[in-house]
Specification:
Blueprint: H1 8-31, H2 39-57, H3 62-71, H4 76-90, H5 109-140
Helix pairs in contact: 1-2, 2-3, 2-5, 4-5
């Protein structure tokens, strides 16, 4: 069972670190195409920041409630990823070939390519964050009464 941490130092430091981790995760998401990072790293960082909030502030906290709401979004990332690929197919291209991505107002291949990669990375980030939170919830609520050898 998850309990709130009772150290004032840990709680104060977590209040500072959690928003910074989430902000850096968004930076990695938006600029991951030009360097190391992307949707997977962003999802890990977002999930980890929520897990840190749950471990420090306990089950009655805002991060816990946000993580529970995020659990309802399981599969949304897959829908975004597959939807972008489907839009590329509908536009006459190949799956995830962003030159076939048809979005009104976006005319150049460079813009289509950037937006296509960004949206697929958002889908990956959502699924990875939900998976990380799901693993922690599964491990935290294992029945303590079972008889282990």
């Amino acid at each position: 069972m998850i309990q709130a941490h009772d150290s004032v130092i840990v709680r104060k430091m977590s209040r500072v670190l959690i928003p910074l981790i989430q902000l850096y995760a968004l930076y990695v998401l938006f600029f991951g195409q030009q360097g190391p990072g992307g949707g997977f790293v962003c999802g890990v960082m977002l999930g980890t920041s929520l897990i840190l909030g749950i471990l420090v502030f306990g089950p009655d906290s805002q991060p816990y409630r946000l993580a529970q709401k995020a659990m309802h979004g399981d599969g949304v990332g897959l829908l975004i990823f597959a939807g972008i690929g489907g839009l590329c197919l509908i536009g006459g291209g190949q799956y995830l070939n962003y030159s076939g991505l048809t979005i009104p107002g976006i005319d150049t291949d460079v813009e289509r390519h950037y937006l296509g990669i960004l949206l697929t990375q958002v889908g990956v980030a959502i699924d990875i964050a939900v998976t990380a939170i799901s693993i922690v919830f599964s491990l935290a609520f294992i029945d303590d009464d079972r008889d282990d050898p």
